[in-house]
User: Fold Thiopeptide-type bacteriocin biosynthesis domain from Enterococcus gallinarum.
Amino acid sequence: MNNFIMNNDYFICREPLGNVTSLLNIERNGSFNNSIYDLIKNDKQFLLAVSAASPNLANSLLANNYNSKITNSLQKYFLRYVTRATPFGFFSATSIGTNKLSLANKALYKNIIRVSGSWLNLLINEIQSNEIYLYNLKVTLNNSLYQNNNEIINYFSYNNEGGLKKKKILLKTRLLELVTDCCKNKFIKVSELYEKITSNSLDKHRFLKYIKELLDIGILHSELTPTMNSKMNLFEDFLNKVEKFYQPYSHINELYEIAQLINDFNNDCNSVCVIQIVNKMKNIVKSTRYLDCIVINNYIMENPNFHREKNTLEKFLNRTATISNYFFNSLHKDLIDYKGKYIEKFGYDREVPFYEMIDSIGGIGIPETLEIDIENKDEYQELESYIVNSYTLKKVIDLNDTFFQRLFRLGKNSNNCDTSITNELFVMDFESEMVSNTEKTIFLSPIIGVRQIGNTIGRFFLDYPAQIQDRIKDMNNKVIKRYEKEKIELVSLLPYFGNSSGEDLVPNYSFTKSSTVIGYNCSDKDINQFDLNDLLVGIDRENEFYFINRNSNNQIKFTTFSNLNSFIGSKAYDLLLRLSYEQSTFYIIECIVNILRKFNLSCRVIYKNILVVSKKMDIFYPIKDVQKLKKKIRETFNSKYFYIQNNDNRLLINMDIDDWFNIFLEELKHQKKICVSEVEPLFSDLLEKNAQDIQIKENVYSFFNSEKLTNVKRIGQYTSSTLEVRRELLPFEECTQFNIYISKEYQNSFILKKLSPYIKHLKTQGRITKWFFIRYIDSDGEHLRVRLFSKEQEAFQNFLFFLNKSIQEKIISKYEISVYNRELERYECINNYELVENYFCELSEISLKILQYKKELELQTVIYIVNLINKFQLNKQRIIQTMSVNKNIDNDKEFRNIKAILLESYLNNKYVFSYTRFEKYILQLNKDHVSELKKREILFSLIHMLCNRIYGPNKEAERKIIDYVRKFLDLSLHLGV
Assistant:
């Protein structure tokens, strides 16, 4: 049985509405002229598309008012109109296709417009700026806020480009505290808020100005904020709210007129002019975007080779998923840094609220990125070598050759093979009488694996006929039911974009039963509002994150709304989406693309008759020689055609036409860097041959895992007893941690003259069995963390007496007693963790010995680390390579000054250290067959902790020592010592 099957007989299809024949006619002409202008003016669909996108440009076209700027814009729109299948605007159509005649619906063709969300938000902002309206509006607290000490943080804020980002808003004040308490989880009138909080003691104007500021920065949002998942569109929903205003809105009649014109247009009233609608909107409030448009089309797609293509795609999915899992599992420990922080903070046995996890102080913070850093790993380097060699020999990477077949066989032996459930493939289809069906190539579009569950057309779902709505629901319900069988609840995650165009991409209809709508109102009774406060986060034994609904105990997975907006996502938003899904089926493709990008290679990736990744190249501004550039592009892509590439957006360019190549040059001048890619070879060949019957379509096939999921990953508090070693050691049991606060300049003296002698005294008396220390810094300042192991309560009491006496003598400022959290995963040997702690004790004693010799600190530290590396018996070249990140030419002179004495001391064993406990530890690591990768991680952790004990939390000193070690290792390899 194949791992992937297509989930039903329908699929999403998109196609450009322009005719490629028109493009070829213009190419033969060589440039735009009056006859070409007449041609495109007579194309009603193109004129409509331009009118909606840029009314001023459409007016210029109708008035025959042409200049270079207007011509340039018209050509760009025209190229998009005839070659790019995008789901937005009137330049292309979105359809529901089927391969079965019995399921076909009669043809449907419909232009739909909506008021743009960006224009609507500007209008709302203008209304809220009016104190008369604002005083009678209802407001509520934004549901994406989080309080961190006395700061308020918006984890789902936005910037001017529409992307989301974490944003610290302001310090929490008493007034803000009163406002947020009154507005939490409910709407309240601003007038009531004013009376309740201020009792009319605060100037009304100042209070309203303050409320407006809170609305602007996202702490509050008003009842006018669009309601997501509504049965009405955003503008209709807005009008219903405005109708209820205590004070009539001044532009209400114009808004009704706009609504009526839009309704008439959507009901195929040909007399309605889009430019007329835009002009009326412009008179109320100006925006860069006024309308959100789409063309709905439905037709029968008859493809005699469909089942052959389907089988090929299934094999490709199965192979890439299997290899991806092999790679992902073998490299999975690269996420240990972030996951290790979680485990160290909360452990396997605690499920914590989401907001507690992302609290940058109390939790573990949001990772800067979840991109996996694998460049130094053996598997990745093997792949990298293969790709570079393939490029050198063939300029092609074939996913079907022996290298990937071996990985496929290795992956098939994995117990955890193919965890991905849902995938959607965008397949470019170029039809022509000149194409042989038996040799037809399948072209995957730039974004080849997404998790949108069919939501590309969700924002216009309600505009489709009922029969097609049922088909779309069926496509999504089959996937959702796959999850429900495993007690997994899918939740749509819909963010708020402020005054950007982002909300135009968000579906009004939610295919999932629950949604969490960040920053929006969500009042649809048919949709459950999922509160992030109900989200519990955990991590299982395989280091996989999971989310649980604390009310239902169902596992939660978040789904996003559109593949086209992968650039949108704050750290927290991105965290939710990425951690709640299994790893990407196309992880192996991501690795390949990253390697190609790293070496700036232009290479094609293929699998049988599937073109997976096209050739690409980056071009930087300025261009010294345009002719040389053209020659290079032609040689690279073997064609006069290429795409200007921007994520999922592409623009076709023919470099033999100066006007079109100048479009590319202008874009390059503006952006400074542009990625260009090859045109699909079949399409390029058809264009070169001047084929007049080319049809372009982009079919979105949905796949999901046909095999039943087993062993849903959920650990939580129920299985914590399986660990043989306790993670948390409570005070005054077998170990107590004392945090001793003392200024940095007195720490060494205190350690050597006070702390160490007293602990030695306790050990001599047999009161304590072992001890070790580290240095630390927190919000209260620098301190020592001393961990004492003893079975006698009296030992801890004696140490407390010592600390209190030190306070009286003003040697230390204070101390705290805290829980000792063991870092079990960081150092392996989970079931023999005592070996690790024994070595920590040995390392503490060695640190004390080194600290006694101030003038030889660097020499002794470097030599100890070099000996440590020798005992690990790891690949020194790999270690040197890893240490190169600390390379600093400023250290070169100082190292030259100590190089001779360092080498002499090393060769003559001048400094003798004990490695007894370390050797027992490394022996256990070898018995446990710990990988070289993990050993390197442990090595660098030990180096870090040695530097910490000697220099404290001083990153600069640590980097300097590591750089010295790197230089010495390099020297010793060169000398053969």
About this structure: The radius of gyration is 33 Å. The longest helix spans residues 306-330. Residues 158-167, 562-569, 710-724 have pLDDT under 50 and may be disordered.
